[in-house]
Amino acid sequence: MFSTEYEFTLPLGYLDGEGTLHRDGVMRLATAADEILPMKDPRVRALPPYLIVVLLARVVVRLGTLTEVDPGVVEGLFSQDVTYLQELYNRLNGLSPPLVAVTCPHCEAGFEMEAPLPGESTATPWNGSTRRSPTSDDMSTGPTPS
Question: What pairing do the DSSP bridges indicate for beta strands 99-103 and 60-63?
């Protein structure tokens, strides 16, 4: 089943004016409008790093018992929580490689690592050339004599 909303728990949490700590929340997948409309916001135009504040306020649909998550709430988050939400946003929206569970073949320890995005490969790094090297395989005879 296709899901558009994902639950999360902040590492530290948002402390509201009454002293209530809000850690559990829900983030929805971003739409094109979520990415485009904040660029018109005068706060973002004046200070481009403010984009993440506006963007997170648009996609975090619930945080604890708060009735609304607006830019003021995001401004009040601890840096560690903003970083966590930014990484979650990137992962959910396909902007960063997914994490996959792997096991070391030698010690059999389990851990997570980033899987390459489709089309990415470190096996053949791009060097800007589409020509083959004369030494690229045993069948190559080098440049054609003129």
Answer: unpaired
- Closest by alpha carbon to 66, among 19, 29, 16? 16
Query: Can you read off the two tokens belonging to residue 107?
Result: 């010690």
| Structure confidence by residue, pLDDT tens digits, 121-141 | 555 555 555 555 555 555 545
| Strand stretches in the chain, DSSP E | 5-15, 21-28, 60-63, 99-103, 110-114
Mean pLDDT, residues 3-19 taken together: 95
**In whole angstroms, what is the distance from residue 55 CA to residue 3 CA?**
20
b/e burial code for range 15-35 (CB count within 10 A of at least 16 → b):
eeeeeeebeebebbebeeebe
